[in-house]
Design goal:
By secondary structure, the protein is α/β, with parallel strands linked by helices. The chain contains ten helices and ten strands. The strands form two sheets. The chain has a six-stranded mixed sheet, with helices on both faces. A four-stranded antiparallel sheet has the order 1-2-3-8, with no helix packed on it.
Length: 293
């Protein structure tokens, strides 16, 4: 286990303990989350070193890597993903109708495949060999395991859909992505929001914490600061409203509430979270849309 002593966003060392959360997916170990008192970044610490983290992804329940759709929650995830993929495409095409697109952390490739069918020149990076193999088969073209292996160095659009919270070196990655983005390009970064109503309600059971796979836990303040530090100008924040329902369903499962009662409770809590988020923009997941300065 390693301990993070310095906040990577504001370089301060003043933290407060936030919650102790259980890994309900793989190890069933408990991990501490602490919050930087200056910028609000949440940090899982102590946590496994980079060489050990891959073992915490080895589960059929980790749907974004395995593509597993078994069970009620898995089936609901795939239904929600179908609508979300169309919504992401529509959101992106508000800025560019077509062009070069990089999806960093592309998982099993469904988003890229949809954009490719719509005429986009797509590239993907996926560190997980299992997920990368599936995305290559789906796309019919190479998917790289690192940014250094990419052929294109000038993208109109770069996307990270629930990826940044998994990345060990936030600053280094964002600097690399900044260098790959066209001067008029757009980056879309979706991350869970620990200030959302469902996060506050579920506390240590909130599935958006997903320790230890989620190394960082973002607030609007910490995310905005991070982007500005690395040469980006925030242009918009958009909610991912379906995430509130899916995360609430998983959170009910984490609490041990399964079956119909868990589904009903999760749906009601997701609805309440979205309702409250309308006033505060503190939805369960947020998309930060930014451009190079």
């Amino acid at each position: 286990m390693i301990t993070v002593e310095l906040c990577p966003v504001c370089k301060q060392t003043d933290f407060e303990e936030h919650l102790s959360c259980k890994d309900c997916t793989v190890s069933h170990e408990t991990f501490l989350i602490k919050i930087c008192k200056v910028c609000g970044l949440g940090i899982t610490s102590p946590r496994p070193g980079n060489e050990d983290l891959s073992g915490y992804y080895q589960s059929d329940d980790y749907i974004s890597h395995s593509g597993n759709s078994s069970g009620i929650i898995g089936s609901l995830y795939l239904i929600a993903r179908k609508f979300t993929l169309r919504w992401k495409k529509s959101l992106i095409e508000n800025y560019y109708q077509t062009g070069n697109l990089l999806d960093y952390g592309c998982g099993t490739g469904e988003f890229l495949e949809g954009m490719q069918r719509a005429g986009w020149d797509v590239s993907g990076v996926e560190p997980s060999q299992i997920a990368r193999t599936k995305s290559i088969a789906l796309l019919g073209k190479p998917v790289e395991n690192s940014l250094e292996n990419l052929r294109s160095i000038n993208f109109n659009i770069i996307t990270l859909w629930h990826v940044l919270e998994h990345v060990s070196d936030l600053q280094m990655l964002l600097q690399k992505l900044h260098a790959l983005l066209h001067k008029d390009g757009i980056i879309f970064i979706a991350v869970p929001n620990y200030e959302s109503a469902d996060a506050v309600h579920y506390k240590q059971h909130w599935a958006g914490y997903d320790v230890p796979r989620h190394l960082w836990h973002f607030s609007k303040k910490s995310m905005t600061t991070l982007l500005e530090q690395n040469g980006f100008r925030l242009s918009s924040i958009r909610p991912m409203k379906l995430d509130a329902f899916y995360i609430s369903l998983l959170s009910e499962k984490n609490k041990g509430k399964r079956g119909l009662s868990g589904i009903i409770s999760g749906f009601l809590q997701g609805s309440l979270s979205n309702f409250r988020g309308r006033k505060t923009m503190n939805h369960s997941s947020l998309i930060y849309i930014a451009q190079p300065k």
